[in-house]
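REVIEWER CHECKLIST
Item 1: Sequence provided? yes
Item 2: Single chain? yes
Item 3: Sequence as submitted:
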Amino acid sequence: MKKTLALILSLALILSMTATALAGDAEEKWAADNGLYLDEPMDELYEKAKTEGKLVIYTISSRTQKVANAFAEVYPGIEVEVYDISSGTLKDKFITEYESGIHTVDILHSKEQVGEYTFEIFGEGWLHNYQPASIFGNVPESYMTLTPLMVELNLWFYNTEVYNECPITSWWDLTKEEWRGKVVYQDAQGNDAYCAPLTAMVQHADEMAADYERVFGKPIELDADEPNAGYAFIKRFLANDPIMAKGSDEVIELVGAAGQANPPVGYSSSVKLRKTSDGYAINYGPETMTPANGIPALNFLGIANECQHPNAAKLFIKFWLGGEDGLGAGYKPLVSLGSWSVRPENPTAEGNIALADIPLWDIDFDFIYNNIEDVRDYWIAHRN
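Item 4: Structure as written out by the authors:
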């Protein structure tokens, strides 16, 4: 009976692996058959797209509707329907529909920072990259794990009424007594965007150790419960009583409110620099933090497997990235303070520091995806 059971289990495993491989082959064939690996001219795509009908986009940005409006002017005859969906529900909505056999959406636009889309959706073949060389030929390879639209960052903000420049230059500064209770962060237990850079620190523990020695003038001595310098930072940072904000807006309010004599610094989304127009005295110091500011949050685009309008989707993505010269109307709604295109041909907002001048760790979705929960558990264990 044991031999029979073992044989049955082996056959079941083989059948499961075969079914998975066949499914992968089918999705790969769909992508190839629908030209996702080709680089067709935009005028040719337009002629094909006009026969397909309405293009449907799921997006996390209200600005996508402005892109769609500009697209309609340049390419009449192709209706575009945009659904603005919160990032917290978009992934689950797409998975639920796909598993139910509903293939309504053509393009999905969201943000990747921890590898969930990379391994759980793209890895299954449910979303496809579309990366024609005429658009992405000059994009750095580190951003090409997915189809990149733009990046946003979390950066350290300071109060410009009190400080002429960023008063911290290293993450280790945040563990010093002078910054006790004067650092605003968000709780990494429930916020991936704040747990991901800590996970990158753990990955780059050697750099964190070297930076510790630079700041304090001696090598780091790890406690028994500090596996490496990345974990050591997390423990010592939490021991210095950081202020836990509920969101990026609260970070900016605490840091940038007028009339403070001794304001905190705070880690917040780069797009919040726009809140200077609301009267907050803020700026960020991206060129000062060592060993890096963190990791980018990658806004990506994916074409849904078995979507109904693949040619319109390809045309729209090319348009969204500014067309073949990068200067077209499609990218203009995305030009704003605190966001950067990774495509060199695209314009950037006046006042933005060049992305290349901001020290960042490359995105390693594989490491973050496989280690973020360990880092989160360590954070929870040492949080006051």
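Item 5: Key structural point noted by reviewer: DSSP finds twelve helices and twelve strands in the chain.
Item 6: Recommendation: ____
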